[in-house]
Design brief:
This protein is of the alpha+beta class and about 160 residues long. The chain has one domain (about 1-140). About 30% of the residues lie in helices and about 25% in strands. Helix 1 (about 30-45) packs antiparallel against helix 3 and helix 2 packs across helix 3 (about 120-140).
């Protein structure tokens, strides 16, 4: 699976483009939906961490995992993907584990149409990285949670102002 994320100033939306085999799909992500997606991605990223671990340790482990994954996946936005059909406006998000220790993510429009995406850890963290990087471009001023942001004396890896 290939992921791309771009900001469309006219639409004031993010365009998530996916190449899945020969299919090229697109999803419009609104500001509100992006906040939901961000929380869902971090929740899935933390799913493998022991629930008994205290909150500070969980955040540190999440930050370390995201940092490790950044070195495994090269994120590039070019060349732009040519979509097979017009993008759909994602209004509903469903997420959870899939049967192969990965992550299931469904992006659904108002009519109930959409796509179930099966992400491995690398793809999940790549999507987090793409979202983090695009926030500076779209200037939505979202206060997105990041690991380590609540631990006194430790700065999160991303210090971009949103």
């Amino acid at each position: 699976m290939q992921l791309q994320l771009t900001y469309d100033r006219v639409e004031d939306r993010l365009l998530l483009s996916l190449k899945m085999g020969e299919r090229m799909l697109g999803f419009w992500l609104t500001r509100r939906f992006t906040e939901l997606l961000w929380r869902a991605l971090w929740q899935r990223a933390g799913a493998a961490i022991e629930q008994q671990t205290n909150a500070s340790a969980r955040e540190l482990l999440l930050a370390m995992e995201q940092s490790n994954q950044k070195h495994k996946v090269t994120v590039t936005q070019t060349p732009p993907l040519a979509l097979s059909a017009p993008p759909i406006l994602a209004t509903t998000l469903k997420y959870g584990p899939n049967e192969e220790n990965g992550h299931a993510l469904s992006l659904i429009d108002a009519s109930g149409c959409g796509e179930l995406l099966m992400l491995d850890d690398n793809s999940l963290h790549a999507l987090i990285q793409l979202l983090d990087e695009i926030m500076v471009t779209c200037e939505w001023q979202l206060d997105l949670w990041r690991p380590l942001s609540s631990i006194a004396g430790i700065s999160p890896a991303s210090t971009a102002l949103h």
